[in-house]
Amino acid sequence: MTEKSPLIVGVCGSARAGSFNRLVLDHALAHAETLGARVEMVEMQGDTFPNFCEDLETRDGRPGRLDEIRQLCVDADGYLMASPEYNGGPTGILKNFVDWVSRPSKTAPGIPFREKPVGLLSVSTGRLGGIKGIQCLRMILSHLGMHISGKEFAFALAKENTEDGKIINEFMAGEVNAVAARLFELTR
After folding, report:
1. Are the C-beta atoms of residues 160 and 135 closer than 8 Å to each other?
2. Strand locations in the chain (E)
3. Residue 18 located in a structural domain
4. Whole domain around residue 77: which residue ranges?
5. Is residue 118 domain-resident?
6. Do the strands 78-82 and 166-167 form a parallel or antiparallel pair, or are they unpaired?
7. Residue 46 to residue 68: CA distance in whole angstroms
8. DSSP single-letter state for residue 42
9. Arithmetic mean of pLDDT, 69-94
10. pLDDT tens digits for range 113-134
């Protein structure tokens, strides 16, 4: 990899220890790296950013890690995002990330989302894999001007298809790899 290799940023909408979404996102990022991408993960916990509110920003200033994370996003050539489905949509952590990072910044100027491709994943222990959450996330990210990669995957039955931190179902692993590969194509 070189500095000219595309930078793909991973964003996980789950801060849960042992998250299936993080496991699958890590797999996708590793595959993108084998294709020649540089990869970085936005490390978020539930408390990385407070719930977005302009009054908080005015009163307390910007959250400590915001400009560092925003700069990474400005530098990104594309994104891989994974989120569980909560009540038919992506998680609050992921939406909060989008709301904070999309705020203009004098310290980290530039465009973090518009015109950038994104590959979407959702993982669930259920049979639908979180497909409704992907649909909602697609709408949010399209509104920001992002290019949805055209290849996304709702990874179902996560308990049965993973073991010891790995994807054990070949078909599922292939579909996750295909999301990463399509995104890599779009970032070159």
Report:
1. no
2. 7-12, 38-42, 78-82, 117-123, 147-148, 153-155, 162-163, 166-167
3. yes
4. 7-187
5. yes
6. unpaired
7. 17
8. E
9. 96
10. 999 999 999 999 999 999 999 9
Whole-model pTM over 0.90 = yes
Query: For residue 25, what are its two tokens?
Result: 């996102």
pLDDT of residue 2: 67
Is 70's pLDDT higher than 70? yes
How confident is the model at residue 64, as a pLDDT?
A: 86
CB atoms within 10 A of CB 71: 17
CA–CA separation, 65 vs 77, rounded Å? 20
With tokens 């994943």, the residue in question is: 121
For residue 1, being part of any structural domain is answered with no
- The verdict on residue 2 lying in a domain is no
How many residues belong to the chain? Answer: 188
Q: Which two tokens stand for residue 47?
A: 């408390």
Burial class (CB within 10 angstroms; exposed 0-12, middle 13-18, buried 19+) of 138? middle
Judge whether residue 47 has pLDDT over 90.
Answer: no
Tokens of 69: 């994370």
Q: How far apart are CA 115 and CA 126, in angstroms?
A: 33
Give dist(CA 20, CA 129) in Å, integer.
11
Tally the domains of the chain: 1
Q: Estimate to the nearest angstrom the gap between the alpha carbon of 73 and the chain centroid.
A: 11
The pLDDT, as a whole number, for residue 1 is: 60
Q: Is 61 exposed, middle or buried (0-12, 13-18, 19+ CB in 10 A)?
A: exposed
Query: Which CATH number goes with the domain that contains 47?
Result: 3.40.50.360
Q: What is the DSSP letter of 47?
A: T
The arithmetic mean of pLDDT across residues 47-58, rounded, is 90
